[in-house]
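[step 3/7] inverse_fold.run input=structure_tokens len=259
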């Protein structure tokens, strides 16, 4: 049976945990002189929420543990990948552009405050599921399968791009092989599938289905808000990228068009 009081407790503690994670990240970012360190905290902040939900939730233990394992596997891999990707590099151009003409306080609010708020909202399926009663196991199984597709898609896309960049003969070329021939953003699409899967696990018990806006918002930011569209503003300036855009799907994978 759903417990509203338990939801309030889990949500409040989750909010405090997210805030602490962002404060620590802001201090690290100030020391390093770049705010892009928040990208590493992004995945880990969801793990914080999943841990809070697992420890303080009153719902079935198997579902709370399942969500903790799924979120920890996804968030841990993402944090590890982004840390390695950004190590030794200057500020991300997207953040550099965001900081232009703005005070440090405003930048911190836009980066750490906004991302903290998004983590809390997008993680609502985890919070609600922690306070929900018994559900329909087959829906949770479907959610795990969708989550698995997303993790494999995201990890494979990241690995393919890393290998492509590591080959010096590809310098100046556009990555259009493997999953990158089917979608221009396989990592973002995989991320979206992960959260649709987590939502399905939460939706297996009422009122988890009501948190459907969480994966929708995640999809919006991955594709349009601060993800694909924003990245392509810079990428489209590179030789050959416009042609790549013409023959390759933007977000959802489809067979590549003939050149």
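[step 3/7] decode complete -> sequence:
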């Amino acid at each position: 049976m759903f417990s509203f009081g338990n939801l309030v407790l889990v949500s409040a503690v989750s909010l405090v945990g997210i805030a602490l994670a962002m404060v620590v990240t802001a201090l690290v970012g100030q020391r390093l002189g770049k705010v892009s360190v928040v990208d590493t905290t992004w995945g880990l902040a969801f793990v914080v929420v999943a841990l809070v939900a697992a420890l303080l939730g009153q719902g079935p233990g198997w579902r709370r543990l399942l969500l903790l394992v799924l979120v920890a596997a996804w968030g841990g891999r993402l944090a590890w990948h982004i840390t390695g990707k950004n190590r030794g590099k200057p500020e991300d151009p997207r953040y550099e552009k965001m900081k232009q003409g703005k005070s440090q306080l405003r930048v911190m609010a836009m980066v750490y405050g906004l991302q903290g708020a998004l983590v809390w909202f997008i993680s609502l399926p985890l919070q609600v599921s922690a306070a929900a009663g018994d559900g329909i196991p087959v829906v949770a199984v479907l959610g795990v399968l969708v989550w698995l597709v997303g993790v494999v898609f995201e990890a494979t896309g990241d690995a393919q791009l890393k290998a492509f960049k590591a080959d010096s003969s590809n310098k100046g070329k556009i990555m259009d092989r493997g999953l990158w021939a089917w979608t221009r953003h396989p990592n973002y699409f995989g991320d979206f599938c992960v959260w649709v899967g987590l939502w399905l696990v939460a939706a297996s018990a009422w009122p988890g289905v009501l948190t459907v806006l969480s994966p929708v918002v995640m999809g919006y930011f991955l594709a349009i808000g601060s993800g694909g569209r924003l990245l392509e503003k810079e990428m489209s300036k590179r030789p050959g990228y416009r042609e790549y855009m013409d023959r390759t799907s933007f977000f959802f994978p489809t067979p590549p068009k003939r050149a």
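[step 4/7] annotate
The CA atoms of residues 30 and 37 lie 10 Å apart.
Residues 137-166 form the longest helix (30 residues).
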